[in-house]
Amino acid sequence: MSIFLLFSFLLLLSPSAFASETGKIGINYGRIADNLPTPEKVVQLLKTQGITRAKLYDTDSAVLKAFSGSGIALTVALPNENLTAAAGSQSFTDTWVQNNILPYQPDSKIVAIAVGNEANVDSKVTSYVVPAMSNMYASLQKYSVSDIKISSPISFSVLQNSYPSSAGSFKEELMESFIQPMLEFLKKTKSYMMVNAYPFFAYSGNSDEISLDYALFKPNSGVVDLGNGLKYESLFEAQLDAVYAAMALLKYNDLKIVVTETGWPSQGDENEIGAGSSNAAAYNGNLIKRVLTGGGTPLRPNDTLDVYLFALFNENQKPGPTSERNYGLFYPTEQKVYDVPLTMSKVVAEGPVAEAVAPPVAEAVAPVAEAVAPVAGVVAPVSDSKVVVPKVGQSWCVANEAVEQKKLQAGLDWACGQGKADCRPIQPGATCYNPGNLVAHASYAFNSYYQKMTRASGTCEFGGAAHVVTQTPKFGSCVFPTGN
């Protein structure tokens, strides 16, 4: 490509194509699967693809060792189950840093620690997040580690209002115990807000009101925010500006946002409107182009966009609907689910990606370990459950008592968190808290999600942790709701 053509093409990409600094693309490396490549192979895959930033969900020793000397910048995580201990004692975070950071730094290039993940949706741990962050920061200082940022990813549900973007505000019940202390900590330590943003969820739940082109960064007429007069051409940027507006309302105008998760599923259940490989390719491809060509959001045009795609692989053991197991850019075989450019050189070489599509079906067939079966026109992984949802009559979704507790807990956490099930009745002192055991609580949460999703096929799986019954569940005096 000649210098003139390259110059002309970059101008077409974005008015901010020659910004002094462009955004950065990273990727989430989750491992809730039993068929993934070794960490060493994963590192080689990332290097081959030109990915220089990755986010982990723990501090697994084998994984951190594999990244040693790779040059790939890592964000590691303290899981939610450790928040209480980390908040209660600096000696815990001292030990955690000694075991999980010091042996690998600087060779493994750890640049940030995510303390918890989407803790704003779990009232049992929300109040522990900032004390845990403070203790973690103190421990890093104690051992003279000053180049690692501390933050905690929040989900978009942290907002009370998100439309229009200029009216963005945080939920009042989270302000005192979570939001304000976190913002103050981030400002004090010169860190940044971690946000998980998924336009897919907004579109899937409101496809009659939201343009698909608007959700996928494709050319569209845009949406004008009557509150500030700014025009938005993508739902993603509107979501980020709603968070920026909420922070500005509290006088934290100088904090930056890093998007720690965003993505689009290549498969979904029949009620997950918009899921599909072509849409996933368009969303991620156009997002990458948007990030790498510089510039920020309409509200914060001078801030670059730093984004971690979700996710590297399809993870076959994730609970929840089919989409949860199909966010990956790659199959566990390291074959691409669909093709998108991941670096600026590939963006330039391949040209505009507004109409990015998945490879032909014959090239995107999952390996045998991820066999698929058609369900009402939607390709979805075969369920381990042998139960067929009745077409008529009442049915409920309950926990499979035969699976291990870890799997039940993961399903419960997802249902009450990202699945947005109504889990208030199983909180201490509430009507369905007793009997206070995991099977009972998971059953209530699974059923709440199942009924909310109108008992659609595939919504009572949770990775094999749940199944459908046609007799009213009996757990103490708790009454399990069902739809009409």
TrEMBL record:
Gene3D superfamilies: 1.20.58.1040, Glycosidases. Keywords: Disulfide bond, Glycosidase, Hydrolase, Signal. It comes from the Eukaryota. The keyword Cell membrane does not apply. This is Glucan endo-1,3-beta-glucosidase 13. Belongs to the glycosyl hydrolase 17 family. GO terms for biological process: carbohydrate metabolic process; defense response. It holds the Pfam family Glyco_hydro_17. One of its GO terms (cellular component) is plasma membrane. SUPFAM superfamilies: (Trans)glycosidases. It comes from Spinacia oleracea. Transmembrane segments: none annotated. PROSITE patterns: GLYCOSYL_HYDROL_F17. GO terms for molecular function: glucan endo-1,3-beta-D-glucosidase activity. Residues 1-19 form the signal peptide. Residues 395-480 form the X8 domain.
